[in-house]
Amino acid sequence: MGTPELISPRSPRVSAARRLARRAFRARERRFIAEGPQAVREAIAHRTGGEPTLVELFATVEAAERHAEIIAAAHAAGVRVHHADDRTVADISQTVTPQGLVGVCRFLDTPFEAVLAARPQLIAVLAHVRDPGNAGTVLRCADAAGADAVILTDASVDLYNPKSVRASVGSLFHLPVAVGVPVEQAMAGLRGVGARLLAADGAGDRDLDAELDAGSMGGPTAWVFGNEAWGLPEETRALADAVVRVPIHGKAESLNLATAAAVCLYASARAQRTAGGCRAVPST
Hints:
Blueprint: H1 12-19, H2 23-29, E1 31-35, H3 37-45, E2 47-48, E3 51-52, E4 54-59, H4 61-66, H5 68-76, E5 80-83, H6 86-93, E6 101-106, H7 112-117, E7 122-126, H8 132-144, E8 149-153, H9 162-168, E9 177-181, H10 183-192, E10 196-200, E11 206-207, H11 208-214, E12 221-225, H12 234-237, E13 242-245, H13 257-273
Parallel strand pairs: 4-5, 7-8, 7-12, 8-9, 10-12, 10-13, 11-13
Antiparallel strand pairs: 1-6, 2-3, 4-6
Helix pairs in contact: 1-6, 8-9, 8-13
C-alpha cells in the first residue's frame, strides 16, 4: 500500500498539539497529551461525555506498523490518525526517548461532588504533591490497589502535566480523579460520606502495623499524602482523624512518596477485603 503521507511539522494541528506542553494552553483547550502505546490504548477505550477521550493520534510510520491494532482501534473509534516523522512526534511528546505514539485527549476529571455521590470506600488525596512524576505514580498505585477515586487538591500539581500522565502509565483513564479541590473541602466532604481520614506522615504518632493489628482499617478510608520533601502542613494534619507513619524496620532513613502511598493503600485494600471489612470478599 506504500508509505503513508506524513503530516507537515508546520501543520496547525502539530503546532496546537505541541502547545499542550504548556499548562495555560491545556486549560484553555481542555486537552492534554498522552504518550505511548499503553496510554493511547486506554484513551481509545475511554469515553468522556459520551465521546472518545482520544481526539487525534500522531504516529510514526514504524510505530504505526508495530502497533497496527492500536491504529485500527483508533480508526474504528472515529479518531483522526496522523502519520508523522520521528522528529515531529518527538517534538509533540517532548521526551528524550519518544515511543512513536502521541494522542491528544479531552480532559477527563470528575467533579468532586460526583466522587462523593459514589460513596467511595478507598480514596487517595494528594494534598500538597508538587512533583508531577510522584502524582502520576501515586495515581498508578491507587489504581493497582483498587481505590475508588483520587483527589488532587488545589495545592497539588496539574493532573495533565505530561510527566504526570506518563507516570500514571494509563491509570489516569481507569478511575475517577477530581482536581483543584481545596484541602479543607476535600477532607470535610470525604468525612461527610463516612470516610476515615488518615494523613500519611513519617512523623505520625500512629503506626500502620498497629492500626492493622487493631482492626481499625476495614471501613471507608481516605489517605492524605503530602509533599515528599516537607510532608504535610500542620493545619492539614490537624484535619485528619489520625496521622499514620509507615514503620521502618530496617536502616533506611525514609520511604519516597510513591512507595509509602503504595504501602498505605494496599494495607487498606487488604483490610477492607478481610472479614468485617467494607468490601465484599469475592468468591473463588
